Amino acid sequence: MEITNQNRFDNNVNYTLFPYVAQNILKPMHIKRAEGIFFYDVDDKQYIDFSSQYMNVNIGHGHSAVMDAVVEQMKSFSYMNPGFATNVRGELGLELSKLLPGNLTKTFFTLGGSDAIDSAVQIARSYTGRSKIVTMARSYHGGTYSTLSMSGDPRRLLLGNHNMADVVRADNPYFYRCPWGSGSIEECGINCAENLEKIIIGEGAETIAAIILEGESGTSGCIKYPPDFWRLVRQVCDKYGILLIDDEVMSGFGRTGKMFAVEHHNVMPDMMCMAKGLTSGYMPLGAVAVSKVISDYFDSKPLPCGLTYSAHPVSCAAALAVLNIYKEERLVENASEMGAYIFEKLQKLSNEHISIGDFRLTGLLGCIELVKDRDTKEPITSPIGGTHNMEVMDKIDAIFKEQGLFTLIRWNIIFIAPPLCITKEQIDIAFKILSKGLCIADKYYKQSYSAIES
Q1: pTM
Q2: Measured between alpha carbons, how far is 180 from 194 in angstroms, rounded to an integer?
Q3: Please, which residues bridge with residue 168 across strands?
Q4: How many CB atoms lie within 10 A of CB 388?
Q5: pLDDT, tens digit (0-9, with 9 covering 90-100), for 277-328
Q6: Following DSSP, what letter does each residue of 216-280 receive, concatenated?
Q7: Adjacent-strand bridge partners of 133
Q8: Got the DSSP string for 326-365?
Q9: Would you say 279 and 285 are in contact if contact means Cβ atoms under 8 Å apart?
Q10: What span, in angstroms and rounded, lies between the C-alpha atoms of 335 and 322?
Q11: What is the chain's mean pLDDT, rounded?
């Protein structure tokens, strides 16, 4: 019996589970291959990967140097007990120490972002003897039980009443929709920091182990930090003996035009969590780096973290190759340059499409926020029974895919996060498709309805 593409597709939906979706409405794309900023379905249709999949394929798809490094490591051995020393583990730790902010000296390797965050929380609680973790109301830190509980993302609601205890949330400095009605982004940052301190005092500062911030906001809407916000949070942490955890899982490794997003703010965190761009998604790997003060603490006490696949040698080999590619191909610099180019394109796009309420971008991590009315800022999607009516966004997504563009869409937000190797010519093609999709959004704008009715 001949095995067809339909058979292979059916195997996916009949024998595997897909994340965060009711399984009986699945319509996944069926992918055959990928190269550079493009991927291709089983019918050989080409798509621009305008979100680097989950904002992780930073170097682009199919880079031979990573494949060569993985094969070479597997020729020696594919796995070793994480209690053993290996050449690639030590080399990767050394290379990261050269890239990380100067106070971060040692790294614990995990399998991805979620367990990196989870490990950071375990370390923070052990080191401080405190239990509570403060996070932002709009944030995403991972899909495991603990990290989803810590996230402000609505997906945590799927856990019902079973979220992890001792998580405290504070409002974001979201200037476009500022909770305090601030007159400037700077004022919004000050108000947010003051509110954060009030929450900490109310919770009991002596019970707070850590505050965790995304290096740059990602899937929660790429909410731009006010210029001084990171510094103000650092001051609050220092005042009350609270650790500051920097979640660079999405924003790290050149995504924002600097190696790490926190470098835009000149602030030293106590811990930094990494994944995604560390291997560019070629192999599973995450990491949590800690300051010398914290690492010294565990010289005489057991580290409260352990994973079977920690410091997996094949993943470490992939990471070493990826770090070299960032340097040799100047991808961080390209992210900064192409980010500036995209920002100009977004300004023009905003003038052409009235449905764009706001756009936010740092390097190659950004989004477009769609509204029905720029004055009221009413989102183009409407909440219904805890979810959103995604009719218009589904239509936009259909246009994108028909025209050969793939990017993430959530709520009323279209994300822009292409691989760091993208060119101006490729950006121009992507923006022509974006504009076609936004023509659909413009039809849902309230003034359009009023014109039609009159």
Answers
A1: 0.95
A2: 11
A3: 134
A4: 17
A5: 999 999 999 999 999 999 999 999 999 999 999 999 999 999 999 999 999 9
A6: S--TTT-PPPPTTHHHHHHHHHHHHT-EEEEE-TTTTTTTTSSSSGGGGTT---SEEEE-GGGTT
A7: 167, 210
A8: HHHTTHHHHHHHHHHHHHHHHHHHHHH-TTEEEEEEETTE
A9: yes
A10: 15
A11: 95
Classify residue 52 as left (phi > 0), alpha (psi -120 to 50) or beta.
Answer: left
Q: What are phi and psi of 410, to 5 degrees?
A: -135, 135
CA angle, residues 296, 82, 103, in degrees to nearest 5: 30
Element holding 453 (H helix, E strand): helix 446-453
Give the whole-angstrom CA distance, residue 379 versus residue 135.
24
Paired tokens of 131:
């239990």
- CA atoms within 13 Å, Cβ hemisphere of 235: 10
Mean pLDDT of 18-46: 94
For the chain, which domains are there?
Answer: 5-59+330-448 (3.90.1150.10), 64-328 (3.40.640.10)
Dist CA 290 CA 97 (whole Å): 10
Phi then psi for residue 358, to 5 deg, are -155, 155
Burial tier of 103 (Cβ tally within 10 Å: 0-12, 13-18, 19+): middle
